Amino acid sequence: MAAYILRRILTMIPTLLIISALVFVIIQLPPGDYLESHIAELQAQGESIDEKKIQFLREEYGLDKPMVQQYWVWLTGMLHGDFGYSFEYDLPVTEVVGDRLFLTILISTTTILFTWAVAFPIGIYSATHQYSWGDYGLSTLGFLGLATPNFLLALVMLYLANVHFGTSIGGLMDAEYIDAPWSFDKLVSVLEHLWIPVIVIGTSGTAGMIRRLRANLLDELQKQYVTTGRAKGLPPGKLLRKYPLRIALNFFVADIGNLLPTVISGAEIVAVVMSLPTTGPLLLSALQSQDMYLAGSFLMFLALLTVSGVLVSDILLALLDPRIRLGGSQAR
Amino acid sequence: MRRYLPALLLLLGTCGLPAASAYDGPLIEPPVLAQRVDSGELAPLRERIPGVPKIVELAGEKTPGEYGGELRLLMGKQKDIRQVVIYSYARLVCFDTDFELVPDLLQSYEVRDNRIFTLHLRPGHKWSDGHPFTSEDFRFYWEDDATNPELSPGGPESPLVVDGELPRVEYPDLYTVRYSWSKPNPYFLPALAGARPLYIYKPAHYLRQFHARYQSAEKLQQMIDAEKRRNWMGVYVNKDRPYKATNPDLPTLEPWINTTEPPAERFIFARNPYYHRIDQNGRQLPYIDSIAVNIASSKLVPAKTGAGESDLQARYLRMDNYTFLKTAAKRSDFDVRLWQTSKGAHMALYPDLNTQDPVYRDLLRDVRFRRALSLAINRHEINQVVFFGLVEESNNTVLREGPLFLPKYQSKWTEFNLKRANRLLDELGLDKRDDRGIRLMADGRPLEILVQTAGESTERTDVLELIHDSWLDAGIMLYTVPSTREVFRNRIFSGEAVMSIWSGLENGIPNADTSPAELAPTSKYQYQWPQWGSWYETRGQSGEPPTLPAARELVELNDRWAAAGSYQERRKIWQRMLEINLEQMFTIGIVNHVPHPVVVNNHLHNVPQKGFYDISPGAYFGIYKPDTFWFDEARR
C-alpha cells in the first residue's frame, strides 16, 4: 500500500509539469498580451494612451521576453511560493487571491452540505420507494433544478429577495460590511445573502446526486444478500444502512477528487452573475484580460487540488472496498 | 489669443497685488474635521486653503449647499476607482461647462504665441498631507521623472514634445513655472485639462524616498524585495499612481482621497482638508464628506442602481435600462435624467482603406463607392427600430452644440436614396449581378462585405442587420463578423478587415483650439486607415504613407493647425478638415445624440438636469463639479 501511494505521488510530478506547460501556452494562445487588451479597453472607453508608457510597462512586466523564458521564470518562482504578479491588480497574485479564498470556501462548503442534506434522504427514499408518487414527484423536482439554467434562477431569486426582503442585490453582504471587521451584524448580513447562491448552485448538484444514489442503491437492493438479510429477519432500516447503502456510497467517495477543486473555484458563472466576491469571477476576468500569472497560478492551484483530490479518493476507496485493492494488484 | 483673454484679465487682477486680493471673507469649518482642528492635529481652515482659493459661485440652477453625507457609487471593477479621479476633475487648468479653458489648481496662467506658457501657482496651496505645493513639484517631475532615462526611456509624454523638440522648463520662483518651446504647442493646455490629465507635477516630498537619485541603494533594494519588483522604477511607478488612485499614501490635490488599499470590494474616498476650492459662503468644497465606491459585476449595476444602491450612477447604465430604471425610480427614491453623449457618432462604419485585398481596396478608395454605401443606409428606420426614435440620424461629425457645426455636416449624403446609390454603383462598373442579385466585382467575385464588430453590444449587430437589408436592395451583401475586442483590433491592424463598426469621433463638441487629429490619418487606432495612421505616428518607421490626395491634405492641415497663429486660422483649418471628411465619407456615421440615463438620488442637489456624459472633453461628471453636489438633511 505504501509503495502504491508513493508511486502515485511520484506520477503527480510529471502530470503537474505537463499541466503547467499547457496552462501557460493556452493562456497565451489568444492574440496579443495583457497590455494589448489593456490598451484596447482604455481606447474603448476613450481614454488616452501613451505608447511610451506602454513600452516601459512591457519591459517592466517582462512581456518582451520570449515565452519559454517567461514560463521558466514563472515555474521556478512557483517552487519558491512566488506565484507571480497580477498586471490587472498591480499586486502579487497571492495578495489578490487571499481574501477571496475564505468566502469561496464558505460558499462552497455550505453548498456541498446543502446538497448532501437534500440529496441523501431523497435519494434513499426514491430508491426504496421506487415508482411511487413520492419518487416521481421528488425526481421531477430534482430534474427541474438540473434543467433550469443557474444564472436565470440566480437573477430571478436576486430580484425576488430584493423586492420582498430588501436584500441588496448581488454580493455576499450589505455594502457597509465589506472590508469591515467581523461582527455579529456582519454575520447576519452574510447569512441573509448566502442562502441564494447556496440554493442556486446547489439545485443542479442535488438532482445529479439524487439520481446517482438512487441508481446505485437500486442495483444493490436487487441483490441476493439483501434478500438473505431480509429473510433472516434484519429490520429494514438496519439492513439498508449496514449493507446496500455502504456499497452504494462508492461513487460518493470517488467524487471527493472532484469536490476539492470546486470548493476553491466556486461556481464561476453564478458567481459572475451574482457578483459574489469569490475566486470564480477573478479567474474569468484574468483569462479575459490575459492577466497570465494570475490566471495561470490559479489554474495550477486547481490542478494541484484535483490531482491530490483524486489521490485521496483513490486511497479512501482502497481502504473502503477490498475489491478495489484486489483489482489494482491484479492489473499490476 | 482671444481665448486666453479672460485668463489674462484675471492675471492682471490677481498678480499685481497678491496680498491685497488674498481671501479674507468668512470661512466655515467642515464639522467632520472640527474635532481634528480642535485637538490641534489639523490647522484651521484659513491656514489650510491657499491665500487665494478658487471661489466657486453657485447660482442659477445650482445652489450653495451644506456639508456632509456619503456619496455611494457602483463600479464594475477595482480598476474603475480611477473614475473618482475623473469625476473629481481638479486640474491645473480645466474646461468649464462651455468647454473653455479656465485656471483651476493654477491661480492664473499666461500664454505667448502659443509657445511660452507661464503658470502661476496659488501661494499657500497644500497637498492633501499638508505639504506646500510649489514649483519644486514641477521641477521634480521634469528633471527626475519625465527626463530620467531610467524612468522614462521614451522621453516625456507626447504633448510635451513638439517636432521632437523638448521644452525649456524654468522655475523663476516658488510659485511660477514656465514651459517654452520654439514652435507653438497647442496640445499642452488641453492635455493638462484632460479627464486623464498630463501630470506635470508630482508630490516631490513623498516620491523622493522611492527615487534612486534621492534614496540610498540599500534602502531601495529593501523596498524592491519587499514589493517583489524588478528594480526601483517598478517601486516608484507603483507608488506614483495619481490617476489610478491605488496608493492611499500618495498626496493629491483632488477633492477626495482614496483611503482603501487594494485589493478590496469597497473603496472609501475621504475629503481632502487642503482642497483649494470654496463656495461663496466660505464653505470649503467638497460638500460631501466621503465617497463609497462599491465594486459589483458590471452586469448587475443597472439592477443594483434600480434597487437604490447608488446615489449617482451613469456608468454601466444603457439606454435599454431606461424603462426599468423609470419603474424603479419611485420605489428607490431617485430621479432618472437623460443626458447626452458627445461622440461624433454613436456608431459608424469604417471602410478600411488599407485592407489587403486589392479589389476591395480599390473599391473602398473610390469616393463614389463610400457615398453609395452611405446613401443605401436607412438611418431613419434604424433610429425608429433600435433607438425608439430618440436619436439623430447623422454623419460622423461635430454636433450642433459645438461652435464648429454646420447643418450640412450632419445631413449631406445621409438621406436614404437607393436610386442614387444604385446609380453610383453602376457608374463604378459594378453593373453585373449574380443570380441572387448581388453585384459582381471586377474579378467576378460577388460584392460581399464582412463587417467586423467587437461583439460587446448586441446594439451594433442589430444595426448591422438593418443595414444588411437595405444594402441588399443596392446589390451588396453584408455579413456581420463578431469577435472579441482584441481579435477585432488585430484583424484591422493586419489589414484582414474590409470594414468595421465602432463609435465615431471621441469629441463631438470641439472648438477650434481642440486638436483636429481625429480627422486626419494620425494614429493606428483609426480604423479607416490604420496603416496611414501608423506611418504618421511612427514617423515613417511602420505603416505606409497615405496615397489618397484627400488624406494627404488632411495630414498637412493637421500639421498646419498645430503651427497656426490665430484662433481664426485654426477655425478655418477645422472647417476645411470637416468639409473633406464630409465629402470623402472616410467614415460612415449612422446616428448620434444618443441619450444616456443618469440616475440621481432625490436628496442629492446641484446635479444638472441636462448635460453631456462623455469622458472627452467633459470628464463625465467632472465639468459639472461634483465637489459642489450636496445632500439635503435626509441623507446627511
Q: How would the blueprint of this fold be written?
A:
The complex is a heterodimer of chains A (332) and B (636).
Chain A: H1 2-28, H2 34-44, H3 51-60, H4 67-79, E1 85-86, E2 91-92, H5 93-128, H6 133-147, H7 150-165, H8 184-221, H9 224-231, H10 236-242, H11 244-248, H12 250-254, H13 256-265, H14 268-274, H15 279-288, H16 292-320, H17 322-331
Antiparallel strand pairs in A: 1-2
Helix pairs in contact in A: 1-16, 5-6, 5-8, 5-13, 6-8, 7-8, 7-14, 13-16, 14-15, 15-16, 16-17
Chain B: H1 5-15, H2 31-38, H3 45-48, E1 54-56, E2 70-75, H4 82-88, E3 93-95, E4 101-103, E5 108-112, E6 116-120, H5 135-146, E7 168-173, E8 176-180, H6 188-192, H7 204-207, H8 217-226, H9 232-239, E9 256-258, E10 266-271, E11 277-279, E12 290-295, H10 301-306, E13 312-313, H11 322-332, E14 334-340, E15 347-351, H12 358-364, H13 367-375, H14 379-387, E16 392-393, H15 407-411, H16 418-427, E17 448-453, H17 458-473, E18 477-482, H18 485-493, E19 499-502, H19 530-537, H20 549-563, H21 567-584, E20 588-592, E21 595-601, E22 604-605, E23 630-631
Parallel strand pairs in B: 1-11, 2-12, 17-18, 17-19
Antiparallel strand pairs in B: 3-4, 5-6, 6-8, 7-8, 9-10, 10-12, 13-21, 14-21, 15-19, 15-20, 16-20, 22-23
Helix pairs in contact in B: 13-16, 20-21
The largest sheet of chain B, given as strand count, sense and whether it forms a barrel, is: 6 strands, mixed
Give me the number of helical elements of chain B. 21
CATH architecture of the largest domain in chain B: Roll
Oligomer: heterodimer
> Uncertain runs of chain A with pLDDT below 50, 5 residues or more?
328-332
Largest interface in this structure: A-B, 50 and 53 residues
Provide mean pLDDT of chain A, rounded. Answer: 83
Strand order of the largest sheet of chain A: 1-2
- Unreliable spans of chain B: 1-20
Structural domain count of chain A: 2
N→C terminal distance of chain B: 46 Å
Percent in helix of chain A: over 70%
